[in-house]
Amino acid sequence: MRILIVEDDETLNRQLSDALSGAGYVVDCAFDGEEGHFLGDTEPYDLVVLDIGLPQMDGISVLERWRRQGRNMPVLILTARDRWSDKVAGIDAGADDYVAKPFHVEEVLARIRALIRRAAGHASSEIHCGPVRLDTRTARVTLDGTPLKLTSHEYRLLDYIMHHQREVVSRTELIEHLYDQDFDRDSNTIEVFVGRLRKKIGAELIETIRGQGYRMQDPGEKG
């Protein structure tokens, strides 16, 4: 999952980036409203963390422009604790949730997990497909109850296709959501990671759709 942080406080931006990266997310950062708007308008993010008080362009304006342009990714806004009007304005502009400063990073992570789950149509923090269980709270994956050891790239790939199971996901979509904007992207690496995952969870769970991409689905649900 790929997340954009738009926050002009460099220390807070770095803290959030480190926490999200440590939780298995791919993170891009922006430090003013114009840069944030540009990235959110041109790159496919699974979620945006957006501060309200930004230089160049305020967060409310950024969010309103995104929504007018049809950008529907979940947005979590950061507000000042005593500015209730910012919270109202943010929600009215199209925000999906908010956190007031100062906050605990664990709360931000929990809200992010919930927003991403809901956007993909999952109510529970645990997502399953056949014998595979993925706990989004702990980034823990099990196969028939046995813990699986995955590399960071394998986990990111599995996390994305499990959130979007039963959907056909193209290689391009996977590349755009698994790597940040500065990564040297190569579609061949996706095939490598899919091959490794199949060896670990079973080849029948990840289907290749010729000319389109991949689909993860419990074989028992087909037909």
Automatic annotation (TrEMBL):
Residues 124-218 form the OmpR/PhoB-type domain. Residues 124-218 bind DNA. PROSITE patterns: OMPR_PHOB, RESPONSE_REGULATORY. GO terms for biological process: regulation of DNA-templated transcription. SMART domains: REC, Trans_reg_C. The keyword Ribosomal protein does not apply. GO terms for cellular component: cytosol; protein-DNA complex. This is Response regulator transcription factor. It comes from Jiella flava. The lineage of its organism: Bacteria, Pseudomonadati, Pseudomonadota, Alphaproteobacteria, Hyphomicrobiales.
